[in-house]
Design brief:
By secondary structure, the protein is of the alpha+beta class. The chain has three domains: 38 residues, no CATH class; 36 residues; 105 residues. The radius of gyration is 36 Å and the shape is elongated. The two termini are 45 Å apart.
């Protein structure tokens, strides 16, 4: 059975959709009279635009939820306890500290090389130094600047490393405590 209301407000109950209700909202009823399916009829352009916007919003929300689920699964597969997270943090900070020490060592070597090049340049005080010496001085200055920039980046990374592992730990606790609470019910 079909139930629909025409433009004048008259309600129809028929075996086939009546022509008076074409393009209008209708309901398909079971033999017992319960609504099995609703047909919304033709939508106005505004309704179509609204429905499309809702569909896109739902798709985006689903995509974000799927990405969050993927991240959570990866987190739970990576760490088996809070201690694992702290161990990973310690390793990352240790590696960063090693990189900082290596960079500081390269800076010290560069400064020593700069001093040696300056001493050699003094030998040519009354005449122009050879092109190779000038190029070596320039290359050494560039290398020193690059190493100093790298040192600054590595020192700033400590805060980023801690923030990353703090967030991982927070999410891990949230996921595992939530799972434990669900398991107790």
């Amino acid at each position: 059975m079909y139930k629909c209301t025409d433009a004048k407000g008259k309600i129809y109950y028929t075996q086939t959709p009546p022509t008076e209700c074409l393009g209008r909202p209708s309901e398909e009823l079971s033999k017992s009279g319960t609504v099995m399916r609703k047909n919304e009829g033709q939508l106005t352009p505004e309704q179509q635009a609204q429905r499309e916007a809702e569909r896109k919003k739902k798709q985006e929300e689903d995509k974000l939820a799927q990405e969050e689920k993927r991240k959570n699964t990866a987190l739970l597969n990576t760490y088996s306890s809070e201690k694992d997270i702290e161990d990973a943090r310690t390793r990352a900070i240790r590696e960063n500290d090693t990189a900082i020490k290596d960079t500081e060592k390269k800076i010290a070597e560069g400064l020593k090389r700069q001093k040696d090049l300056d001493n050699e340049k003094e030998f040519y005080a009354k005449k122009a130094p050879p092109a190779k010496l000038a190029q070596d001085i320039k290359d050494n200055q560039i290398e020193l600047k690059n190493q100093q920039n790298l040192l600054e980046v590595k020192k700033k990374q400590v805060a980023d490393i801690n923030a990353k592992y703090d967030e991982d730990k927070r999410r891990y606790l949230e996921l595992t405590k939530g799972a434990a609470a669900t398991a107790k019910k």
